[in-house]
Amino acid sequence: SKSLLALYLMQSLAAGGKAFGKFSIPSPAASLLISEEDSGETILTRLTQIRAGHGFDEASTARLSFLVHAGVRIDDPKSLALLREEIGRIRPSVIWWDTLNRFHSQNDNSQRAATAIMGVFDGIRRDFGGCAQVVLHHAAKGTENKSGGAKIRGSGVFHGFVESGIYLDREGELLRVEVESKFAAPDPFFYRLDFK
Fold first, then answer.
1. Burial grade of 139 (CB within 10 A; 0-12, 13-18, 19 or more)
2. pLDDT for residue 190
3. Which residue, 70, 80, 155, 170, shows the most beta carbons closer than 10 Å to its own?
4. How far apart, in whole angstroms, are the C-alpha atoms of residue 95 and residue 10?
5. Is the pTM of this model over 0.85?
6. Is-contact 59 94, C-beta < 8 A?
7. Which of 83, 86, 87 is nearest to 72 (CA)?
8. In this predicted model, what pLDDT tens digit does every residue of 131-190 receive, in sequence order?
9. What is the pLDDT of residues 110-120, one digit of tens each?
10. How many Å apart are CA 130 and CA 105, to the nearest integer?
11. How far apart are CA 38 and CA 33, in angstroms?
């Protein structure tokens, strides 16, 4: 669900218009997906299905860039330096990370480790023109009856760094989408991703 929704939102930003059929996107934005989760073939197949299912213009994919299974490790100085070079070359407006635990070997529950991890994302935002960071992460076990940031796995530091979070629950063919934000946030709503 997380990866699919991220691809849908990436494509929505690239095309402009509206996300979820209700939230206006003022102008198209370029995205970089850094994925250690799905294969490149799976990602491209899903994007093609999402474009067809939601009527996105194929030309908008020119605003999408990908680093797939590139072995990115944000807690390895050499790997991080190479990544920062690539970000500087692409200059995306938004960077999508799929999924957090794939990019480091630290203890999620350690406050010190979590602070260092989030500091990497904050440094990238600061050094590359304020580009947004969308970090996909797992929910902790036993949080089915909790809401918002209380679901996030690991140290509470992760939630402390979040400016806006999207939390998903699947209910049949629908996704229940809960948005938490330091700014304005809509009430939870249901959405179905369409594929063709």
1. middle
2. 93
3. 155
4. 9
5. yes
6. no
7. 83
8. 999 999 887 676 666 667 677 788 888 888 888 999 888 888 899 898 999 888 889 999
9. 999 999 999 99
10. 26
11. 11
End-to-end CA distance of the chain: 17
Residues listed for the chain: 196
> 111 with 104: CB under 8 angstroms?
no
Structure tokens at 53: 């299912």
Single-letter code of the amino acid located at 144? E
- Please give the backbone phi and psi of residue 162, each rounded to the nearest 5 degrees, phi first: -75, 125
Lookup: tokens for 58: 């194929």
Residue 119 structure tokens: 């500091």
DSSP-H helix ranges across the chain: 2-15, 40-54, 77-90, 111-127, 156-161
Q: 138 is written with which tokens? A: 């797992």
Q: What tokens were used for 104? A: 């480091």
Question: Region 93-100: what's the mean pLDDT?
Answer: 96
Q: By the 8 A CB rule, do 84 and 76 touch?
A: no
Return the residue matching tokens 């440094």: 123
What b/e readout covers 37-50, taking b as 16+ CB neighbours within 10 angstroms?
bbeeeebeebbebb
